[in-house]
Amino acid sequence: MEHRLLEYFVAVSEELHFTKAADKLNISQPTLSQQIRLLEQELGTPLFHRSGKKNFLTQAGQILLEHTQRVFHELDQAKLEINELAGVKRGKLTIGCSGNHLLLNTLISFHRQFPGVELTITELATAETCEGLLNNKLDLGIVFLPLRHEQLVSTPLYDEELVLVVSSLHPFSGLQQIQLAQLSEIPLILFPHKFLVRQMLDTACTGIGTTLHPIMELSTMESQWQMAAHHIGGTVLPASYAATLRDTRITMIPLAEPTPRQSVGFVHHKDMYIDSVIGAFIDHLTRKDNFGSALSSG
What we know:
The chain is α/β, with parallel strands linked by helices. It is built from ten helices and eleven strands. The strands form three sheets. Strands 3, 4, 5, 6, 9, 10 and 11 form a seven-stranded mixed beta sheet that branches. Strands 1-2 form a two-stranded antiparallel sheet. A two-stranded parallel sheet has the order 7-8. A hairpin with a 2-residue loop joins strand 1 and strand 2. Helix 1 packs across helix 2, helix 1 packs across helix 4 and helix 2 crosses helix 3. The longest helix is centred in the N-terminal third of the chain and has 27 residues. The radius of gyration is 24 Å and the shape is elongated. It starts with a helix and ends in a 13-residue tail after the last helix.
């Protein structure tokens, strides 16, 4: 079975559209259709079926896709090991991260040492990062722990705490710390419930018998602190992110115990080959000076 035919098959499986897949492969649609027919003839079974205007994988197609993805992954792993023998320091790293701010110092120091390595960092929810690792679309993930999956290995890095961010004009701006119960006294702009930061906060508040009712829910940290800077209301953000903000219009106030906190660490597929580049990146991750004082609680 030719490698080229399997590449064509995977492209159509991802797009479920022959014209789009052909454009992606830089070949004509008739050529692609012919190649898929050759593959189906070789296997003796259809790989796709059409319903209306949509294409779907048959059961045989789904089985072939799963095995093909594993084969391609093993080939990539073999290339990494061969390059390691040759002392190659070039390559690519694809990382899913719960917030790019977590990696800024690591990215700077790593790039200085390995300028030939291409880095792709994508902000993803923890569940999305895990899915990418399991599908071999990511090399590493920076996620909230604990994370329990038999195919994934996680290593803690530090404990993330939450802090209150308010306008410098806010009556609370002069406080050294604030009790969780006091949060219910002020207008709040928070994440929607599906975000882990909101879940951390709600769980901590429930533990002391407090329920928060935000006046606004926004899905990005930047939009939340901008609201705080305009004195619309306070917001609760990860301390590691709040520490990167350099805006005299806002003040960061630590939350008193019980402070909502959760471990952050890196995660990878247990069968992934740790080459010198990935190993070097992990080494940079674990250097304490790459996280700064805001992350020193863990």
